[in-house]
Structures are given as structure tokens and as C-alpha cells.
């Protein structure tokens, strides 16, 4: 059987390599870590989660919850490792960041059909089957090679930011409380309330804080789904209160009322010794992060284990370049997967890697492709990124808006979404994969 080169051991690359190998296809997995690291990476492990440890909602009334369930049923390595190393996060699927990445690495390195080749890839292989899953942090050399490969269309990019981590023992729990919003799930989030005066002082300093140097950064280039908290703050005094500091659904047990604003901390490891500041992606200078974020009452003496960082994310103008199987239209032996295709998010990247691998495996076996229909979340994502009618292409998280409606009326948004999920899973179960 012809072997496949997979470039990149992020979530998409790991999933693609695993799916190919599980189907009996030899894989050469190329990964530049640990020989070369990016500013956002901290470990040599595959599948490292750089921005957040959350894979978001696990409920079927949410589109990403549906996508995760589809991936589970399709035998996803990433979802299997995530479920094994989950940490409590209310209705979300969050993982022990290090335990998860170590498990993914061990699975891939121990597979008899996967050969790991370390070192940076600086050019696209001139022949053979290739899956490019180099991710949003594609190295400069490989980015140039990809741009040269697509002279008809410039690669696009946006800026992405990671949130800080703090130690649990340094959080002042006399100024905070455990709860999940609206009481859903178990009370796994640490909630740090702020009075109006405390919020105003924090907001003022956040807006004025010094940013780290990021070449070419402008507010208009920031992707809305992962916007630095200081950029969000500059949009208006109330913006944070309707975003990451939203108090709605959280009652302070000391007062019995909703605080003026709430900063949430989510567990980052299984031991509960590390927490991340939810929604606090940032590219402030590190001393400024310490100064401003310590204005949050419960974090006055916080020990910052990692400060937030800013990095460039690269993605393709996929509707012009890729088909519904993530194959390059002009040269189908090359397949892209992950955030470089314009799917946004950990789960979405995993889904693209799985679909790309399934189709490539079937092609090598001489079988017809599986056309995942738009009614499924996996199919809807692939059809969105390959839809040539999308002219102003932007990275997209999975959502029910890209899935066809039911064709009949269901009362209530949650009930409608649940019905969409049931339909998707029923269709998925009928596919021969």
C-alpha cells in the first residue's frame, strides 16, 4: 500500500495520521517539534493545546457538541483521548492539557504503521500522497512554500491569542466562589466577582495597558472568535460585561445576587492545581498582564504560571482552492486539514483531519468517497470551506447556521437544535465508512 506523508502533529495531523494507519495505510508523520518550537508551544508532545484546554460544549443542543458526538462515533483518536483525560468543566469538555497531549503522542508513536520523522518541513513534497496539517502556526518557510504553490490566491492570516494560567493555591477564594452558569452541570468554574467600581478601575487600566510588539497587528485583523481581551475592552465600557465577564446566570452566594461583572477561571489540569482565565486571550506585555489582571480581587496575589501570548494564524482561501474532501482542486494528491483550511477551533480541526484521511484512504483503496451530507456537522464544515459562493471567506466554527433546517417547525431553540442533532446522528449511522 502506498504510504502517505502527514505534515504536522497538531490535532488535525494527529487525527489524519491515526485514521490512515488504522485503515492499514503506512504514514510518515513529519513534525518540527522539538527541533523547532513556536512562541505558542511549550512541550514536545503532539496535539498540544496552545490557546485553551476546552473543547467547548458537550451538549447536543450545541453544534460543537454534535460535532464531538459524530467524531466519537467515527472512532476519533482525539475525542477518545479527550474523554479519557477530561477535567470537570460544567457542560463543557475540558481536558488535562498535558495528560491529553501525552496520550495522543503515545498512541501515535506506538502505532506500527506510523513513522515519526522530526524536523521542519520547508517545502511541499514534489510527489506522493500528502496531508498538510501544519496548522495555524505554520512556519515561515513552509508558509512561503504554500503561498508559492498557490500563486493564483494569496494565503490569508489573522492573529490569535492565548490566555494566562494561574495556580489554584494563589486564588483568593474568600473573594471567589465555585459555580457553573445557570447551575448547569457541576460547579466547576471559579467565579471572581467584581463590583462596579472594581470593574471600572480594571477596565480603565486594561484599555491603557501596554501591548507587546506584534508585527503588522491591527484591530481589524483580529479574528472575532479569539479576540484579545484588551482589544475587546477598547470597544466600549460594557463590551466585556456582555462577553467573557458576563455575570448573567451566576449568583454570588455572599449576596444572593448577580455581581456587576465576573471573571471565570476554568480548570486546566486533572489535579485542579492550574486554572486559566476564560476569555482572557491577550498580547499585553507580561508585566502589564501581572499588573492589570491582579486588579481582579480574587487574583490580587495570583501566581501566573504562564502569561498570555499572541501569534499569527495562517489560513487558505479554501473555497477557491479546496474541494469538499479538503483536496487541492488542481492537484488532488495534496490534501489540507486543520485550521489552515479555515475551520476554526480544536474540534473542527480534528473533524477536518478525520474526513480528509477517510477520503484519502478510500481513494488509495479504489473505493468511492463518502459524501458526508450537509445535515451532518462533519459534512457541513467541509461543504462550507469548499463553497465557492462564499466570497469574503473567514475562519468558521461549526454552527447550526451552516446545517440545513429541519423542514418542519419545532418550538424553542434548544428543542430545534436537539432535533437537528438527532437527524444528523441518524444519517451518520447509515453511512458506510
Condensed summary:
This protein has 433 residues and is α/β, with parallel strands linked by helices. It is built from twelve helices and 16 strands.
Main sheet record: 6 strands, antiparallel
Distance between the termini: 19 Å
> Average pLDDT value?
91
Q: Enumerate the strands of the largest sheet in spatial order, edge to edge or round the barrel.
A: 10-11-12-13-9-14
Radius of gyration in whole Å, from Cα? 22 Å
Tell the overall outline. globular
> Count the helices. How many?
12
Structural class determined from secondary elements? alpha/beta
Number of extended strands: 16
Q: Report the order of strands and helices.
A: EHEEHHEEHEEHEEEEHHEEHEEHEHHH
Q: How much strand content do the residues show?
A: 15-25%
What is the share of helical residues?
25-40%
Unreliable segments (pLDDT under 50, ≥5 consecutive)? 215-220
Amino acid at each position: 500500500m502506498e504510504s502517505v506523508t502527514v505534515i504536522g502533529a497538531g490535532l488535525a495531523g494527529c487525527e489524519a495520521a491515526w485514521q490512515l494507519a488504522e485503515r492499514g495505510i503506512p504514514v510518515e508523520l513529519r513534525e518540527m517539534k522539538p527541533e523547532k518550537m513556536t512562541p505558542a508551544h511549550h512541550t514536545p508532545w503532539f496535539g498540544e493545546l496552545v490557546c485553551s484546554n476546552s473543547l467547548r460544549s458537550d451538549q447536543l443542543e450545541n453544534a460543537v457538541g454534535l460535532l464531538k458526538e459524530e467524531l466519537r462515533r467515527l472512532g476519533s483518536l482525539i475525542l477518545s483521548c479527550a474523554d479519557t483525560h477530561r477535567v470537570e468543566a460544567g457542560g463543557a469538555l475540558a481536558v488535562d492539557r498535558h495528560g491529553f497531549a501525552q496520550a495522543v503522542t503515545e498512541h501515535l508513536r506506538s502505532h506500527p504503521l506510523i513513522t515519526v520523522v522530526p524536523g521542519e518541513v520547508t517545502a511541499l513534497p514534489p510527489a506522493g500522497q500528502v496531508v498538510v496539517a501544519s496548522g495555524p502556526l505554520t512556519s515561515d518557510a513552509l508558509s512561503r512554500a504554500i503561498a508559492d504553490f498557490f500563486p493564483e490566491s494569496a494565503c490569508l492570516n489573522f492573529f490569535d491569542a492565548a490566555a494566562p494560567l494561574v495556580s489554584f493555591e494563589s486564588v483568593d477564594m474568600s473573594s471567589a466562589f465555585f459555580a457553573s452558569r445557570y447551575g448547569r452541570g457541576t460547579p466547576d468554574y471559579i467565579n471572581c466577582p467584581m463590583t462596579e467600581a472594581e470593574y471600572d478601575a480594571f477596565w480603565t487600566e486594561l484599555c491603557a495597558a501596554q501591548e507587546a510588539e506584534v508585527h503588522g497587528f491591527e484591530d481589524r485583523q483580529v479574528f472575532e472568535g479569539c479576540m484579545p481581551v484588551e482589544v475587546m475592552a477598547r470597544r466600549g465600557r460594557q463590551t466585556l460585561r456582555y462577553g467573557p465577564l458576563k455575570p448573567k446566570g451566576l449568583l454570588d452566594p455572599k449576596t444572593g445576587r448577580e455581581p456587576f461583572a465576573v471573571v471565570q477561571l476554568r480548570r486546566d489540569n486533572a489535579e485542579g492545581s492550574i486554572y486559566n482565565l476564560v476569555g482572557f486571550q491577550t498580547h499585553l506585555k507580561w508585566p502589564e498582564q501581572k499588573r492589570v489582571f491582579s486588579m481582579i480581587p480574587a487574583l490580587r496575589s495570583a501566581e501566573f504560571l504562564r502569561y498570555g501570548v499572541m501569534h499569527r494564524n495562517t489560513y487558505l482561501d479554501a473555497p477557491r482552492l479546496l474541494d469538499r474532501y479538503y483536496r487541492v482542486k488542481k492537484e488532488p494528491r495534496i490534501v489540507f486539514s486543520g485550521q489552515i483550511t479555515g475551520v476554526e477551533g480544536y474540534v473542527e480541526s480534528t473533524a477536518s483531519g478525520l474526513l480528509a484521511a477517510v477520503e484519502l484512504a478510500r481513494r488509495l483503496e479504489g473505493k468511492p468517497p463518502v459524501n458526508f451530507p450537509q445535515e451532518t456537522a462533519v459534512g457541513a464544515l467541509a461543504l462550507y470551506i469548499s463553497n465557492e459562493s462564499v466570497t469574503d471567506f473567514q475562519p468558521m466554527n461549526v454552527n447550526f447556521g451552516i446545517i440545513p433546517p429541519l423542514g418542519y417547525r419545532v418550538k424553542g431553540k434548544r428543542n430545534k437544535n436537539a432535533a437537528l442533532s438527532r437527524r444528523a446522528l441518524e444519517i451518520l449511522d447509515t453511512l458506510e465508512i
